[in-house]
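Pilot study result, target chain (257 residues):
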Amino acid sequence: MDVKSVAVVTGASLGIGKATALRLARDFAAVQLVARDKENLEAVAKEVLSVGAETEILAADLREPQAAETVVKTVLDRFGRIDALLNIAGAVPQIDLFEMTDAQWDDGAALKLHGARRLTMRAWDALKKTNGSVVFMSGIAAFDPKPAFAAVAVINAAINALAKWFADQGVKDGVQVNSVSPGAVMTGRRRAFFEKWAPAHHMTVEEAMSRFPQQAGITRFGKPEEIADLMAYLVSPAAKWMTGAAVRMDGGETKGV
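Predicted structure:
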């Protein structure tokens, strides 16, 4: 079935990925949902349909090299085109530099960096045909590395660099590419971090969560929907001349020019 516009969202089962999928359902005729959790994907798909977009789910682990081929084939077989690819899947362990094992480094990069890289490369020909758009998910640790978030910073910085390379190629091929670096967004994953971190620092979860914004120099945590709105803008006609940008949205946590 061919439709007028198709967005592919990875990490679509939870958090920012879910919020982005629902937001794009207002702008695209169809949204392909990709994540590892099939049950959550099915729930998100129902919400996407209620917004008015067609949808398809695919439970896939993008750490596996063959997954990119499966995703692109699934989208093209069902919808016939790809207009936007939003690489949101992936979380990197927040572990001190001196405590990270090689296996943890490898796993952190396998999904967020290499999974996104492979999927973008495999989808590139389809994106060229539609003069499409790509967004990579990075994070503010790329701009302000700290020992406690060593792998997060390194992998996010690599994603920004990778996005800029794709953007350079995209100028030649007619594909727009940017990356987004969110700050402290309150998702289920972030709350789980505080649930582990707070007792180790002799605080309740609520105390830890209430103190963090002030310590980070922000007024509050971000919302997944706010990042989703930014994602939607970056793949909209209004942003078509914007490419090669690493866009921060962090409530002012990163004080940079």
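One observation from the pilot: The two ends are 46 Å apart (CA to CA). A full batch analysis is planned for the follow-on phase.
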